[in-house]
Write a structure and sequence with these properties.
By secondary structure, the protein is α/β, with parallel strands linked by helices. The protein has helices at about 40-55, 65-75, 95-100, 120-130, 145-150, 165-175, 205-210, 215-220, 235-250, 260-270, 275-290, 300-305, 310-315, 320-335, 340-350, 350-360, and strands at about 1-5, 15-25, 30-40, 85, 110-115, 130, 145, 155-160, 180, 190, 195-200, 225, 260, 295. It has 16 helices and 14 strands.
């Protein structure tokens, strides 16, 4: 089949694919033909949406480490270099992998993810390289592996630190020359695949303990990207929260426009063992409970509030809990930032002008710190 652009009667361009088939009689004489046209508008729109979802603009962060990562992935996206992404669970390793793929020359080809941690070693080889009928019990037909499916595109090997030494040896061969055999077959296959791998374990330690091949490690880390945990980039939390607010507004049909300063301060104080994924879940929970246009502290998950109980216990018992909470939180943040208004406003997730208005409304003064 072939692709082309045609125009409708209004002059709007429409992407199509078309193919031609000949009709023959019993003596193989051509007696006619059929042309099949397919409107690719929906497919093209979906591809554009997908590429937009994983654009560099969706990698959020003003933290200096994230800025360096942003610059690096823009550079590496335009190459076929193998990339190793490290970082704790929930830091966004898959987002980085997809951003690299969808901003590369391979963006129109497959992106195939393999969750190595979810596959037992006995099945991993078959999943990666495929098998032929009868290769083992249950192999009732030929099956292409993930590398074949990713041919021309990118394969993302998530949690690569979990694979065994046998599979590591075969993976090394693919990385070196793009060759492999299906399980149960001697024929050598060749693929053109970009490899991006990720792990949340200490690969260097695994190499020292002989649990991970040193030659494979160095083959994988041509370009290494380490994603910092969210607790080390807390200045990015307001930006990430706003991103999730915008997304959940669209998906849930709501119009949440504000995060109460007290709620934002709680989000800023928390250490997020589950990183960005945990923050996303917290905001989603708050959206489900919020029926207005502002997320308040009581909209946050109960276990999250429990961690802050010592700080807010007395406040929530007051006659004007939210006003008291806002005043005390603003005072607390001002004290912690040595009354640097811009920094305090950033931590609270509000503008400097809004902070000034709230300071004036609550009559906040430096000497009030002693009464906190």
């Amino acid at each position: 089949s072939y692709e082309a652009i045609i125009r409708n009667k209004e002059g709007k361009p429409i992407p199509i694919s078309f193919s031609t088939a000949f009709l023959k009689d019993e003596e193989s004489n051509i007696i006619g033909g059929v042309e099949i046209f397919r409107d690719l508008s929906i497919v093209k729109n979906l591809i554009e949406q997908l590429q937009g979802k994983y654009s560099f603009s969706n990698i959020i962060g003003k933290n200096h480490k994230m800025q360096k990562i942003y610059d690096l992935i823009q550079q590496v996206a335009h190459t076929d270099t193998v990339v190793l992404i490290t970082g704790e669970s929930g830091t966004g390793k898959e987002l980085i992998a997809r951003a690299i793929h969808y901003n590369s020359s391979r963006k129109d080809k497959p992106f195939i993810k393999v969750d190595c941690a979810s596959l037992v070693e006995s099945l991993l080889e078959s999943e990666l390289f495929g098998h032929v009928k009868g290769a083992f019990t249950g192999a009732i037909s030929d099956k292409a592996g993930r590398f074949e499916l990713a041919d021309g595109g990118t394969i993302f090997l998530d949690e690569i630190g979990n694979i065994g030494l046998t599979s590591q040896a075969k993976l090394l061969r693919v990385l070196q020359n793009g060759e492999f055999e299906r399980v149960g077959e001697s024929k050598t296959n060749k693929v053109d695949v970009r490899v991006i791998a990720a792990t949340n374990i200490d690969i260097k330690k695994a190499v020292r303990e002989k649990k991970f091949r040193e030659d494979l490690y160095y083959r994988l880390k041509v370009v290494s990207i380490h994603l910092p945990p969210l607790r080390e980039r807390k200045e990015d939390i307001p930006l990430i929260v706003r991103h999730f607010v915008d997304r959940f507004n669209k998906s849930m049909g709501k119009e949440v426009i504000n995060i109460f300063p007290g709620a934002m301060e709680m989000l800023m104080r928390y250490n997020y063992p589950g990183n960005i994924r945990e923050l996303e879940n917290i905001i989603e929970h708050a959206f489900i409970r919020c029926n207005g246009n502002t997320i308040f502290p009581h909209h946050l998950p109960e276990d999250f509030l429990h961690d802050e109980k010592g700080f807010i216990e007395g406040i929530l018992k007051s006659k004007r809990p939210f006003e008291d909470l806002e005043r005390r939180l603003i005072l607390k943040v001002l004290d912690e930032t040595n009354w640097a208004y811009q920094e305090a406003a950033s931590r609270l997730g509000i503008s400097r002008a809004t902070l000034w208005r709230k300071i004036k409304r609550h009559g906040i003064k430096k000497e009030d710190v002693a009464d906190m």
